[in-house]
Design a protein that fits this description.
By secondary structure, the protein is α+β, with helices and mostly antiparallel strands. The chain has 6 helices and 9 strands, in the order βαββαβααββββαβα. Strands 5, 6, 7, 8 and 9 form a 5-stranded antiparallel beta sheet that branches. The protein starts with a strand and ends with a helix.
Length: 229
């Protein structure tokens, strides 16, 4: 039992992700006042449950000494996959309506620089932490590492509507969204609207996402020919 928040964490394998997903679905199906905080931005079924992919994330951790010896590794850092779900008691918070800033007059650049906690760099009044926390319940979650290309970024997200979509951010459309997309990480919430979006029902990687094999140098090619002979 938990008084407020329940956190479920398991390995980043398909079986572990399925266990976490089923546990989340069973808790929400009980009918009690509970809602999902992360990673899914909704209380709908897991969109990847019926696909060949699974919902997981990655975190760089420090290996203990005995693991380095077992794996014969010289590095004490490792990228560890994990699956998780965070649920909280009570009904799901209502996302507030977006603010109408069409009539808001920005302050001067000097005043904005003198009061960075109150004003954003463009001179507009910053939103309160409480309002941002509520608005975050309407933001999508990045479910794959962003693909950075020249002049645009491809971001795969799970939306509040329960769909997995690919959002495209270009430098010509919105410079701030483009910069934030290039700095975004796998598993982050992302508030910016994209230039375009497309549905990814099967969540399968495209052909151009598969990295090409590194080119072999002359010595490696010569060794392969020698072994073939």
């Amino acid at each position: 039992h938990t008084r407020d928040t329940l956190v479920l964490v398991d390995r980043g394998t398909p079986d572990a992700a399925r266990v976490v997903s089923e546990a989340r679905a069973r808790i929400l199906a009980q009918g009690g006042p509970a809602h999902t905080v992360a990673p899914l931005p909704n209380d709908l079924p897991d969109p990847l449950a019926s696909s060949t992919q699974w919902l997981h994330f990655s975190q760089r951790v420090q290996r203990p000494t005995f693991t380095m010896r077992t794996k014969h590794s010289l590095s004490n850092m490792e990228d560890q996959g994990y699956s998780y779900a965070v649920l909280r008691r009570g009904p799901r918070p209502q996302v507030p309506e977006p603010l109408d800033r069409s009539t808001e007059q920005p302050v001067s650049l000097v005043e904005a620089q003198q009061n960075p906690d109150r004003y954003s760099p463009d001179g507009l009044l910053k939103k309160s932490k409480e309002r941002l926390a509520l608005e975050a319940f309407g933001w999508p979650r990045i479910v794959l590492p962003p693909i950075k290309r020249k002049g645009h970024v491809l971001v795969d997200v799970c939306t509040v509507q329960g769909a997995v979509e690919r959002w495209v951010y270009t430098k010509s459309h919105d410079k701030q969204a483009y910069r934030d997309a290039r700095k975004a990480s796998w598993g982050d919430l992302f508030p910016h609207s994209p230039k375009s979006k497309s549905s990814r029902p099967f969540f399968a990687p495209e052909k151009d996402e598969v990295p090409d094999e590194p080119k072999k140098n002359r010595k490696a090619r010569r060794s392969e020919r020698f072994l073939d002979e």
